[in-house]
Amino acid sequence: MRTAKPERRVVKTISYNLRKNRALDEIGGLAERHEVDILCLQEADAVQLPTRIGPLGLVRATENNRLGLAMYVRDTRFQVRSARAFQLKKSLHDRVLAPANERLLGARLHDRETGHDLVAASFHAAPLTALNSLRRHQITAALAELRGLGPGLPALMVGDYNYPVFQAKLDRQMRESGYDLTLSDRRTYTRYKMFRGHFDFATSAGLRIDSVRTLDRGSSDHLPILVQAGFEEAVGALAA
């Protein structure tokens, strides 16, 4: 007789570009409705961010950006082992207007429920005025930084990749680097007809991605995405 396997607890992560902080008042409702474990934000004003959103505690927010990144986690489930913000190669837009010095925020987390460690990250690529080649460079560099934050650990990076076209090339590059690129079930940006498409997605390694779902539109020009992921069975208890 087979013994039933214990239920594998998924990690629910929402990524949301707040459109210059305009959608800030929506994040509490999103987190509650979807019972979120990790919340990753882009274009957030660190000064206005609350330290708590229901059961979620603020891990860190970037401080050197006019509009930056932030991450919240369910602190009854996750222990934060470390968190860092990273600078990536700048676009001309960044150099002239200086809107973003830090485009990656990563945290090494210990999951008390499963005994695993993982690395989670909020990412915001250069705007569409830059070339896709620069964004690929930023994505590759971001993943390298996350490997340094948690060598050999499962990793999930979500955010605004600003990469609506020629995604097959990015997908090949990610697979060659050992990562999976997962788009959501519906487009995440529809404000301008010529720029409609998937802008917000997930990059992962060592995780089982069960679904990536585009949520309902709010006051941002981006739609939030909900990623449901689980640890691969082959991954042992990696907490150090």
Regions with little confidence, pLDDT below 50 for 5+ residues? 1-7, 234-240
Strand composition percent: 35-45%
- Fill in the CATH topology: Deoxyribonuclease I, Chain A
Cα(first) to Cα(last) distance is 35 Å
CATH class, named Alpha Beta
Any idea what the CATH superfamily is called?
Endonuclease/exonuclease/phosphatase
CATH hierarchy: architecture: 4-Layer Sandwich
Work out the oligomeric state of the chains in this entry.
single chain
How would you sum up this structure, described in words?
The chain is of the alpha+beta class. The chain has one domain: 4-Layer Sandwich (Deoxyribonuclease I, Chain A). It has four helices and 13 strands. It has helices at residues 27-33, 92-97, 132-149, 167-176, and strands at 11-17, 38-44, 52-53, 56-61, 68-74, 78-86, 104-111, 117-124, 155-160, 180-182, 200-205, 207-214, 225-231. The protein has a seven-stranded mixed beta sheet with strand order 3-4-5-2-1-13-12. A six-stranded mixed beta sheet has the order 6-7-8-9-11-10. The protein is globular and about 40 Å long. Mean pLDDT is 88; it is low at 1-7 and 234-240.
Question: Would you summarize the structure shown here?
Answer:
This protein is of the alpha+beta class.
List the helices and strands and how they pair.
Elements: E1 11-17, H1 27-33, E2 38-44, E3 52-53, E4 56-61, E5 68-74, E6 78-86, H2 92-97, E7 104-111, E8 117-124, H3 132-149, E9 155-160, H4 167-176, E10 180-182, E11 200-205, E12 207-214, E13 225-231
